[in-house]
Write a structure and sequence with these properties.
Layout lengths: L5 H9 L6 E11 L8 E3 L2 E3 L2 E10 L4 E5 L5 H4 L7 H4 L6 H15 L3 H5 L8 E7 L17 H13 L4 E4 L5 H4 L3 H15 L4 E4 L9 H13 L4 E3 L10 H9 L5 E4 L6 H10 L4 E2 L3 H4 L1 H13 L3 E2 L7 H13 L6 E4 L20 E3 L14 H4 L8 E3 L6 H15 L4
Parallel strand pairs: 6-7, 6-13, 7-8, 8-9, 9-10, 10-11, 11-12
Antiparallel strand pairs: 1-4, 2-3, 3-15, 4-5, 6-14
Helix pairs in contact: 6-8, 8-9, 9-10, 11-13, 13-14
Amino acid sequence: MTDHDPITGLLEAIGRVRLRITDIKVTPLTYRRPDGGYLHECGPVVLTQYHSGVLQLFTDAGLVGIGPAVQETTESAARLLGANPFDAVTTRLSSGLDMACWDLIGKALGRPVYQLLAMGHTPEPRVHVYASGGVLWTYYDRGDGQPYGVEQLIDEARRYRELGYDTFKWRPGTDWEEAGMNAARLGEVCRRLREAVGPDLALGLEKKGYDSWTLDECLEIAPVLSDLGFLFFEQPMGDEGPAQFDDYLKLKERMPGVMLWGGERFGGLAEAQPWLERRIYDAVQPDAYHLGVTELWRIGRQAACHGVKLVPHNWSSSLGTVANCHVVAGTPSGHRCEFFLYPNGFRDGLLREPYRPVGSYVDLTDAPGFGVELVDDPAAIFPHHPGPTTVANPRFPHAWERARRREEAVRQRYAVA
C-alpha cells in the first residue's frame, strides 16, 4: 500500500503496541440441519450443508484473536508467525487473518474495534440490522402439510415482524420455468405480501436464487416495487462492471423511491470505485467475511465521500456478523447490516454470546476487540464433512444447467471485449 493509504493514517492515530503472533490454529467446520432438511431451497438448487471455520491467532502477550476461516489452512496462515498484527493489516491479508488481527489490535489497546475504525467521526454502536431470509419458500407443495407458495412467504415475513424486525428481504422462490413464473406473476406475489404485512414492514427483493434477472424482467417489476413502497431491489443483474451502468440507471428511473443495492461480489476498493463514483448503487454490500475488516473499511470510507451507504452482505457465520457490525458502526457510510435467518447453526452456535438483535438493532459494547469468545471445542459441535454444499434440486435436476446458461448470457451482455 502507498503512504496515501488511509489505513496508515488510521494506525498512526490509534497508536501501536509491541505484539508478536506465536501460533495459529485453523479449524474447518460444517453445519448440517439435525433433521436432514435443506438450508436453502432456492432457485434450481438446494443446499444440504454449509462449510465455514474458525481461525485463532495466539500471541506472546497471551491475547488471542479470532476470525472466520473462509479458505485458510493452518499452513497457508503460517506466514504471519512472528508478525505484529499492527503491521500485518497494512498488507492484503485473507479475510479471516485480517479480522483476527483487528481483534488483537483492539484487545491490545483495550478498545472495541468499531471505536478504532471511527477516524474523524463519532461511531454509532447501535447497528440497524434487517431480517434476511426467503430462501425456503417454494412454488410447489412439498407434501409435508405445511404452507407453500406465497402463504409460506407471508408466514415467514409475519414471524420476523413479530420478532421485532422492521425490514424483511427475500428471494424470488424456486425455479421460474418449472413454476410457470415470470416478472408479472412475481409482481402479484409482491402485492399479496405487502397487503398481508401492511405498510410498516419495509421490504426488499433480491436477485433470483442462483440466477440473474434480465433487464426486461427488471424493468417490468420495477414499477410494481415502486408502487408498493419497497425499500430496495438488490443486485438483480449482478455486479458485472461499468458496462451495466446505463442499464442500471434505466432501472432506477423506473422505480422512484426504491433504492438499488449491490456489490456483494466486489473484490476490493478498486472494483468498487467506479460504482461509487457514478453512484450506481444507493447502498453497497461488500462483506468483511470475504474481504476482511481493512478492505471493507476502505470501501466504506470511499462510499461516504460519494454519498453512498454501506450495507454489508452477511450470510455466513456469527463471526461475519461481528466484523460487519463493527465496520458499519465505525464508518460514516454505515447504514445497516444484513442479519441472516435461514437455518444455519453458525449464527448462534459459534460464540458464547452471539449478537442477537433486539427491535431490529444490535448494540455493541465497549469490550476490547470484537468483544466475543468462541464456544469450547466448536469442532465437536460442527464436525467437518468435506463435500459439496450445493446440488441440483432433485425435483427438476435439469434446471440448474439451464439457469447457469441464462446467468452466463447476462454476463456476456455486459462483457467487455
